[in-house]
Amino acid sequence: MADPREILRSEALAGVPHGFLTGIGHEGEPDPARIAAGTELVRVKQVHSPRVVFVEAPFAGDDLPEADALVTDRPGLVLAVVTADCAPVLLADHAAAVVGAAHAGWRGAFGGVLEATVTAMIDAGASRDNIVAAIGPTIAQQSYEVDRAFRERLVEHDAANAALFTPGAPDHYQFDLPAYVRGRLESAGVGRIEDLARDTYVEESLFHSFRRATHRGEPTYGRQFSLIACPT
């Protein structure tokens, strides 16, 4: 059966096989051939960590490594991350044919998963100046309420993070996760960054949202895939 999920593309990644898939009503793994013919899908067990794995071949069986980003320079592989409010980030150095995919919730981004992904790409032959990144569907600031302790933690780490919060309900704030992710990518030296600016919480006909489902008392298992493969 053909996979009917809509695929969103990034102009920054033009020429690189990739896609941010919508998720509602379509469970199970996507067909990697929709991204690049003759490829195999590669995933990890995501745990909100800064860990990155370099992928040389598909992992055997269901014993997946625990990590939150993947990097490869090998054709025939489609790297995949799943999200449902966290930021999916796809990265590429087209000239070096090195790509990466990262799952960047606030914990992973705070822990350095994006910087670690860029470093792993450079270790694989990418040039920092040539790496571009796209931030896929993510919970937007208007939809992401956090408490005072959350704000204090990020501001104590870096006072500049105060700009990522606007006042909300008493003792609560609205947090701009996509802007935080962009800032971490910029700090890692990524020169071109595109934010698709799609809000997983609000666009309920297209995207799963863990927070929306929690607020409504609905099942929270839904996810959408973000995929990338090496250019050939």
TrEMBL record:
Keywords: Hydrolase, Metal-binding, Transferase, Zinc
Keyword Hydrolase included in the entry's annotation: yes
Alphabetical list of InterPro entries matching this protein: Cu_polyphenol_OxRdtase, Cu_polyphenol_OxRdtase_sf, Cytotoxic_necrot_fac-like_cat
Sequence intervals crossing the membrane: none
Matches recorded under SUPFAM superfamilies: CNF1/YfiH-like putative cysteine hydrolases
Signal peptide: none
Top-level taxonomic group: Bacteria
Catalytically driven reaction(s): adenosine + phosphate = alpha-D-ribose 1-phosphate + adenine; inosine + phosphate = alpha-D-ribose 1-phosphate + hypoxanthine; S-methyl-5'-thioadenosine + phosphate = 5-(methylsulfanyl)-alpha-D-ribose 1-phosphate + adenine; adenosine + H2O + H(+) = inosine + NH4(+)
Pfam families, per the entry: Cu-oxidase_4 (PF02578)
Recorded family membership: Belongs to the purine nucleoside phosphorylase YfiH/LACC1 family.
Name this polypeptide is given: Purine nucleoside phosphorylase
Species assigned in the record: Aurantiacibacter flavus
